[in-house]
Write a structure and sequence with these properties.
The strands form four sheets. This protein has a 16-stranded mixed β-sheet that branches. Strands 5-8-11-14-17-19-21-24 form an eight-stranded parallel β-sheet. Helix 2 links the parallel strand 2 and strand 3. The protein is elongated, with a radius of gyration of 25 Å. With 377 residues, it is mainly beta. It is built from three helices and 29 strands. The chain is 10% helix and 44% strand.
């Protein structure tokens, strides 16, 4: 008789998890909480149970599965790995409430974790909402060195991702990492950290292809967006209508670390604004690795510069920078009456409608053509 009661209770519990509408199976975090008095302040196991139900459930119809966190809900969780592949063909997580990490690094279960929240090997993942992710990174910046600090959110080896609408505060390191992913759209995001917060990049992209970052505000202490290649390269990156600043700007690189082959190609940055940033759109490489930079266009750029050198092309002496096009660029000094200048070294630049004179001089190879021939004795 006792066994029958237990089985009956389990059936009731599972049935509470399922609500069907538009062919979707709806799960709610509160349905997985067995501590009805809510004395447990760590909901890590609850989230793992919810992910298991979300990922392993086949659902009904063709709508897939959804996990909903409502506006008035707030949960504290330890670092989490949400791993696929999943049975469900479509996974939706709606976060309208707040998810936060333990406030002190010593309260984390594993300080060496790569990310606080990581989605790995997941396909067809849609995360949206008006909620907040808060890892309390402000308590990591001074007490834990950079290499030991985690990112807030990582997508690793995932395909077909949509991440939309959320706000993230004060990451210990990068706010978002996109690594080894294909076909991802990150949009309508707000990423916030103080201007002097160390290495708090907004979005880092590496070894990824067909990535879109749209209609977002990124205010951090490092690069708003940084794109790196690695041996597999990164390509087809579209960054549109992103407000960047403060921070270090939107960057390709650093490239060439450890003498590895880094390939980044077909990156488009359009309709973006930079306010109070150290740089605008830039390409950065490691010194001494002779990284080849070619086929880069800067077009329709207007604004002010606090630095006297508003345009800087500092290329490798051996490789140089080739086919650099600058068109319709108008930059003025942030200090009234001050003139701006350009620094250019070992670059092949084609400039038109640029209000700052760019003089790159000649390549060493060209200088040889004009040097006197040696005398024959």
């Amino acid at each position: 008789m006792k066994c029958l009661k237990t089985l009956f209770s389990m059936i009731i519990l599972v049935s509470c998890h399922l609500e069907y509408g538009d062919g979707r199976r709806i799960l709610r975090i509160k349905d997985f909480i067995t501590d009805t008095n809510h004395k447990n302040v760590d909901y890590s196991q609850v989230f793992q149970k919810a992910w298991k139900g979300l990922c392993e459930g086949e659902g009904e119809g063709t709508g897939g599965s959804s996990l909903v966190i409502n506006e008035n809900e707030k949960y504290t969780i330890q670092p989490q790995l949400f791993e696929g592949p999943c049975v469900s063909s479509y996974i939706h997580i709606q976060i309208d409430g707040k998810i936060e990490a333990p406030k002190r690094p010593k309260q984390w279960g594993n300080k060496r974790t790569e990310s606080w929240l990581m989605f790995k090997n997941v396909e067809s993942l849609f995360i949206n909402g008006s909620g907040v992710l808060d890892p309390h990174g402000e308590n990591w910046w001074r007490s834990v060195r950079h290499s030991k600090r985690p990112r807030t959110l990582s997508f690793k080896q995932c395909t077909d991702i949509i991440y939309n609408g959320l706000t993230q505060y004060n990451s210990p390191k990068n706010h978002i990492s996109v690594y080894g992913c294909t076909n991802a759209t990150l949009s309508n995001l707000t990423l916030l950290a103080p201007e002097k917060s160390p290495n708090t990049d907004g979005i880092g992209i590496s070894l990824s292809h067909n990535i879109r970052i749209l209609d977002s505000s990124i205010q951090t202490g490092d690069d708003c967006i940084a794109i790196t290649g690695g041996r597999g390269g990164s390509s087809d990156i579209n960054i549109t209508r992103v407000a960047c600043g403060p921070g270090h700007g939107i960057s390709i690189g650093s490239l060439g670390k450890g003498d590895i082959d880094d390939t980044v190609e077909n990156v488009i940055v359009r309709s973006c604004s930079f306010w109070g940033t150290q740089n605008g759109a830039r390409i950065k490489t490691w010194h001494g690795n002779a990284v080849k930079v070619s086929d880069v266009t800067f077009r329709y750029i207007e604004g002010t510069s606090a630095s006297k050198i508003a345009i800087k092309l500092d290329c490798d002496e051996n490789q140089g920078c080739h086919n650099i096009v600058m068109e319709h660029i108008k930059l003025t000094s942030a200090k009234p009456g001050k003139k701006l200048s350009a620094y250019c070294k070992f670059a092949d630049v084609k400039a038109s409608f640029v209000n700052i004179h760019i003089n790159c001089g000649l390549y060493p190879q060209l200088l040889l053509l004009f040097s006197p021939l040696p005398k024959i004795i």
